[in-house]
Amino acid sequence: MELPGLSMAQVLTTPAVAGGAVVVLYLLKLRRRTVTVPFVKLWEQILAEKQTTRLFSQLKRLLSLLVALAIVAGLAFALGDPRYEGATASGRTLVALIDSSASMQATDTESGGRMAAARERVNGLIEGLGPADRLLIAQMDATTTPVSPLSSDPRVLRDALAGVRAEDVAADLGAGLRFALDVLRGQPDPEVVVISDGRIDAPRAIADRITARGVRLSYAVVGEASRNVAITAFSVRRYPLDKSQTEVLVELYNPTDEDEAIELTLLGDGAPLDVQTVTAAAGERTRRFFRNISGADQTLEARISLADGTQDALPVDDRAYARLPERRRARVLAVTPGNLYVSAALLLDEYLDVTEISPAQYAGTDVAGRFDVVVFDSFVPTTPPDAHAIYLYPLVEEGRTEPFAVTGLNPSPFFDRLERHHPLLAFTALRDVNVSESLAIELQEGDRVVAGDDRTPLVVTGSRNGHRMVALTFDLRKSDLPLRVAWPLLLLNSIDYFVAEDAAYVSSYRTGETWHVPVPAGQTSATIVDPDGVERQVPVVEGRAVYAGTRAGFYSVQTGEHEERFAANLGPGEEARIEPVAQLDVEGLIAEEPSVGRAGVRRELWIYLVFFALAILVVEWFTYHRRWTV
Amino acid sequence: MFRWLKGDPRGAAPGKTDPAHARHQDELFDEEFQRRLEYLAIVSRRLYAGRTRAERRSKKTGSGIEFADHRQYAPGDDFRYLDWNVYQRHGRLLLRLFEEEEDLSVYVLIDCSRSMGIGNPPKLDYAKRIGAALSYIALANLDRVSVLSFDDGMSERLSPTRGKNRIFKIFRFLTPLEAEGQTSLADAMRTFVAQNKRRGVAILISDLYDPEGFEDGINQLRYAKFEPYVLQVFDPAEVRPPLHGDVRILDNETGEARDVTITARVLEKYAAAHGAYRKRIEDFCGEKQVPYVSLETTVPFDEAVLHILRRGMMVA
Asked: Measuring CA to CA, which residue among A551, A566, A573 is closest to residue A508?
């Protein structure tokens, strides 16, 4: 018997002191209250009956004292936390890494799913804990999170185990093993038990550390079936020149060994838009495009199912989600002496409200609040407008500096230098555009050349009078740009650039990654509501709410009264391949079967001692009130 | 009602004029008490209507006019009382005896032992009021009343007195009595009968808690030709004391102590023992034809007195 709670001296001192107190209290109890009576002889008759049991009565009183002392001794001994000999000797130290990746949501086991099977395996570990064994349970998904302390208390461990659930992410075994090694540093008989279906990326540069530290790596496999089909990519975009319609890309994956007929359904704003049946060969990734999809304004969702009506084992990868970019009507004022190319390009976007006036009519026109964008064609107003502006060939007299001071002309400029990733140039091909001449201009501070050559800028963006502007330094009519598709794209990209449409558009995020969701300016925190309806307060960094999501589906981000929806899909990884891997190989280190501990009896005797003391207390109370011990 | 008597200089007792005593007397024998006494006196006359004052027959035979018995003539007897008719018929000399009429002496004996100080109100106070009430009734019937206190011997004594207006003298006698000393009924009664040769009614008011037994004391009265009346006074808390748990009981007269754990069962046993003790007294008195009344201090004194009268006491 060992006493890890208090030392033997303390355990002996405690009942000695407390026992002394009990004896004092007992003696005080024996001091009787004196009551004056008129005629004691009447009592003697009753006392005479009791005289015969006097010895027994004294024995009962002594027994009562002994009972009280037994209670004190029991409680004091319980404070010492007595354990059986060897119970505190060094035992195993286990870390159970429960794979909580998306593939663990597969419903292919008799117990109701792989996660349920994993819990059963961990329960087996808990039941098999020896007297000195300790176990820590950790949830291993994109990160590794301990859900229990290093404990040998089955109740604590089972409570913690109940909180483990599979997420819509891939598991990071490397992070899990590193966490386990940190936990097991310096612990006796260390062992890492990975409970998984084996569909996790093998980590690197970890096997040597496991071996060097003498940590036993073991593996408990869960899962049975392998039939599954998945959506592995889902991308959506509006057509640049017809934003009422959408193009959708869906990639389907059949990781099984047999061909599968898959029924693919596309839903827009929750209503079915299209249904296709796709046959995917064994191991094939096949892509399908849905072109000219109309009828969806906010969200798109793809769903797949097996064409034979059966259910595959992993439903979580049978759905994909996307949010469509918001469409806004832009109010455009075109100040032009009459330019067919400009007028025609502006007509291409039905979401533009275009007002066309001549330069002469512009004088005195109040644009502030009435127009989002003003297009100045071969005309430069004396003062910059109170709106975003597009300057086409901004030739100004000498001495004027707005928007640029013109110093001369550059013949035959080329689109040599292009900022391909700038939103102005999205979908455009400008490299072979011919321009006869361009203005030699002096850039102002903050101006940025988006396209041009060494000598002269051709497309410039910047800020004037507190509003953004884009300038083309050449005359459209002295180039072949209007004859190319790039022209209307460039003009419409510029307008979109001003009205911020698409600027931060992401059709969907991927689980397991850190998301940066745009929010209105000036916010320091935002609330993200996940597909399960759970609200989380997240920080806003540089105008974006930062959040690491683990569930696929539609989210919403709320800042004040503003609410924006966004979508998240299953992250990268081989989660679609759900066939269990029988053997876990970590850089050549083959995981073994989990070790089995000595099944011990309940080790915490203090509970029994407390119960013992309580039981005696109850007996004492009962006998006292029944006057058996007094 | 007695106000006019209060100014009577004959009723004043020397040495009893201090304010504390007066106040206590006011409390114990207040106007309400006195009013009830008067009521009791009237009621007692109604109950025993037809009986004339001072006409109680004494046990003595003497010079009365009502024939009582015959006895053999003895030399020296008065010839006038020889029954010649009997001599003529039977040839025997018999003397006619007549009952002698005399004033009845009423002795009110109040137990002032320490045990009488227990109770709420104290039993002694209750005994004083009962004693005063009976004394008044006796005085109202022109009897000669003497009040005495005792514990283990006779303590105080109020000489025999007559007339209603002497009640205040009795009040003043009773008021300063205090509960002290032990009870020894036999010794006290032995002293009493030795000191009082004039026989009469002896009203014994006591709790009868005598460690030596109450029988000897009552027998002393009986043997000395007194007519004992026994009024036992007790407090209801004595029958079922409000005790619980471990206590040490202490006899307030003898100082004897006993340890006892009071439970409901013990209380029941005690109540039974107390009842048995009272039954023993009742049986003894019944056997000896001694009138006995048990009085609980919660019963108003006038009701108690009426009860005593209805039991035939105070009527010889």
From this structure: A566
**Which residue numbers of B have CB closer than 8 Å to A's CBs?**
115, 118, 207, 209, 211, 238, 241, 243, 245-254, 256-261, 263, 265-266, 269-270, 273-274, 277
CA B102 vs CA A346, A418, A492, B54, B60: distances in Å: 153, 157, 150, 7, 9
Residue whose entry in the numeric block shows the structure tokens 């290093």:
A150
ipTM of the complex as predicted? 0.74
Distance, CA of B219 to CA of A38 (rounded, Å): 23
**Nearest chain B residue to A32, by CA:** B247
Q: How far apart are CA A436 and CA A481, in angstroms?
A: 11
The partner residue sitting opposite B270, judged by closest CB among A30, A42, A630, is A42
Suggest the residue from A40, A50, A60, A623 to mutate for an interface test with chain B (most B CBs closer than 10 A). A40
**Residue A465 main-chain phi, psi, to 5 deg:** 55, 35
Chain A window 31-50: which residues touch B at a Cβ cutoff of 8 Å? 32-47, 49-50
Buried b (16+ CB within 10 A) or exposed e, A521-556: eebeebebbbbeeeeeebebeeebbebebbbbbbbe
Determine the Cα–Cα distance for residues A552 and A531; give it in Å rounded to an integer.
7
Q: What tokens appear for A397 in the block?
A: 């007299």
Q: Return mean pLDDT, chain A.
A: 83
> Is the whole model's pTM more than 0.90, yes or no?
no
In chain B, what residues touch A37 (CB-CB under 8 Å)? 118, 238, 241, 249-252
Residues whose CB is less than 8 angstroms from the CB of residue B117 and which lie 6 or more positions away in sequence, other chains included: B123, B124, B178, B179, B180, B252
Q: How far is A156 from chain B (nearest CA, A)?
A: 47
Residues of B in contact with A39 (CB under 8 A): 115, 207, 209, 211, 238, 251, 253
pLDDT 10s digits, A154-192: 899 999 999 898 888 888 889 999 999 999 988 888 999
Range from A123-127, A300-304, A607-611 carrying the lowest mean pLDDT: A607-611
Domains defined along chain B, listed by start = 3-48+103-239+291-310 (3.40.50.410), 61-101 (no CATH)
Interface test with A, best of B207, B251, B278 (most A CBs within 10 A): B251
Of A397-411, A485-499, A607-621, B51-65, least confident by mean pLDDT is B51-65
Enumerate domains of chain A plus CATH numbers.
Answer: 8-83+605-625 (no CATH), 93-225+578-590 (3.40.50.410), 230-323 (2.60.40.10), 330-498 (3.40.50.880), 509-569 (2.60.40)
- Tell me if A426 sits within 8 A of A493, measured CB to CB: yes
Give, to the nearest 10 degrees, the angle between helix B264-287 and helix A41-51. Answer: 130
pLDDT digit string, tens, across residues B98-147: 765 566 788 999 999 999 999 888 999 999 999 999 898 888 878 889 99
Asked if residue A529 lies in contact with residue A535, where contact means CB atoms within 8 angstroms, the answer is yes
Give the tens place of pLDDT for each residue, A402-413: 888 888 888 889
Helix (H, G, I), strand (E, B) or coil at A244: strand
Answer whether A14's CB lies under 8 Å from A6's CB: yes
> Please, which residues bridge with residue A405 across strands?
A442
- The shortest CB-CB distance from B246 to any of A43, A46, A630 is to A630
A37:B251 CB<8 A: yes
Q: Decide if A626 touches B, using CB distance below 8 A.
A: no
CA distance B228 to B188: 14
Q: Which residue, among A236, A310, A308, has the nearest Cα to A266 in the 3D structure? A: A236
A40 contacts in chain B (CB < 8 Å): 249-251, 254, 256-258
**Cβ-defined contact of B259 to A32 (cutoff 8 Å):** yes
Per DSSP, the residues of A606-621 read HHHHHHHHHHHHHHHH
